[in-house]
UniProtKB/TrEMBL annotation:
Domain of life where this protein originates: Archaea
Protein name in the entry: Uncharacterized protein
Organism name: Halomicrobium mukohataei (strain ATCC 700874 / DSM 12286 / JCM 9738 / NCIMB 13541)
Length: 60
C-alpha cells in the first residue's frame, strides 16, 4: 500500500522575517494490512514552504 505525506524538514524565515516551514513530500509504504503497521517512507524531490502560522493555528 502506498500514499503520500509531507515531512517537515526545517524552519526558515522569509525576507520579511516571517517563519516558514520547509516541507518535503514523501511516499509512505506500509508493510501490513492496517495503517498502523510498520512501513517506511521514501523522499521525493518535491518541496514546499508553508507559513508557520498555518501549521500552528489549529493547536491553540
Amino acid at each position: 500500500m502506498e500514499s503520500e505525506a509531507w515531512q517537515s524538514v526545517d524552519i526558515i524565515k522569509n525576507k520579511q522575517g516571517e517563519p516558514h516551514v520547509l516541507q518535503q513530500k514523501v511516499e509512505v509504504y506500509t508493510a501490513g494490512v492496517t495503517e498502523e503497521s510498520a512501513g517506511y517512507t521514501k523522499p521525493t524531490v518535491e518541496h514546499r514552504l508553508v507559513p508557520l502560522t498555518e501549521l500552528t493555528k489549529n493547536s491553540q
